[in-house]
Write a structure and sequence with these properties.
9 helices, 79% helix
């Protein structure tokens, strides 16, 4: 059994075995949440896109009005996907924190900001829904103004910015997996590559909005493969803590004792010198 690390002052002792068990449990939870987030996000996009379809603003408004409940379900799926992302990010943080606590916290913060921006984008989606519903009841003079507002709300800029924060956080998490060897390095390396490619795709969509669809499609498949494969590995195999490369630690107590010993030795030597010279 691993040693128990205790603290004075009546504080609760924490077993190293318990820490590893918690780390493994959160890693498996991260694998599950990867799948949950992917399922909810894909379902939300598929539902809202299938309902709205294409065509003019009036055509889209008619279809959304005819399938309002289904469209709301699609938006709620995206909302629950954003909420699940928080659980995923915390699980990943706990799983890779022993590799580098500072980097793990940085990745967690990026994923939290990603979720906040995504939630704002979903709120815009509900506002866009209301515009389409109002358009079916508005007069001919008001409809063009509603169409202009709908174009602004449906530009997708919020989604792109959220995706950029996701890419940075995802890259850091995969890097920590790669450095710690908790999962096979080929999976972690592919995750870093896919996250970087996804980042370039969404940056490109902000610079070249006319090519946004093509760029995002090119970046989506690699990250989908990376997250699915990592999710299944974490869920089925878990993390291999035994192969991890822990960061070097500094034993402050040992250094302090060594400094004290050197100081005491120097003081003893000085006393001996004084006595020797005093004898003369």
């Amino acid at each position: 059994m691993s040693p128990v690390v205790g603290r004075q002052g009546g504080q609760v002792e924490v077993s190293e075995v318990d820490q590893e068990a918690s780390q493994r449990a959160y890693a498996r939870l991260a694998g599950l949440m990867y799948l949950v987030v992917l399922a909810l996000d894909v379902a939300g996009v598929v539902i809202t896109s299938s309902v709205s379809g294409g065509g003019t603003f009036a055509d889209i408004s008619q279809r959304i009005s005819a399938s309002e409940v289904l469209y709301r379900i699609g938006l709620c799926a995206g909302l629950f996907g954003a909420l699940s992302t928080i659980v995923l990010a915390v699980s990943l943080y706990v799983a890779v924190k022993p590799a580098d606590a500072n980097l793990a916290l940085t990745a967690l913060l990026f994923r939290v900001v990603e979720t906040a921006i995504a939630a704002m984008a979903i709120a815009s989606g509900f506002a866009l829904l209301q515009l389409h519903l109002d358009a079916t009841r508005a007069g001919a003079l008001v409809a063009p103004q509603l169409a202009a507002m709908a174009h602004l709300l449906g530009s997708g800029v919020g989604t792109s910015i959220s995706a950029i924060f996701f890419c940075v956080g995802s890259t850091i998490f995969f890097y920590l997996f790669w450095r710690s060897r908790y999962i096979p390095r080929i999976l972690a390396g592919w995750g870093m590559f896919a996250s970087g490619l996804y980042l370039l795709a969404f940056l490109g969509s902000l610079i070249l909005p006319q090519s946004a669809g093509l760029l995002q499609a090119m970046g989506s498949l690699p990250i989908l493969i990376a997250e699915l494969s990592t999710a299944l590995w974490l869920l089925i195999r878990g993390i291999d803590i035994g192969r991890s490369v822990a960061p070097p630690t500094v034993d402050l107590a040992r250094i302090a004792n060594a400094q004290k010993s050197i100081s005491d030795s120097s003081f003893t030597t000085e006393e001996n010198d004084v006595e020797r010279f005093g004898g003369h």
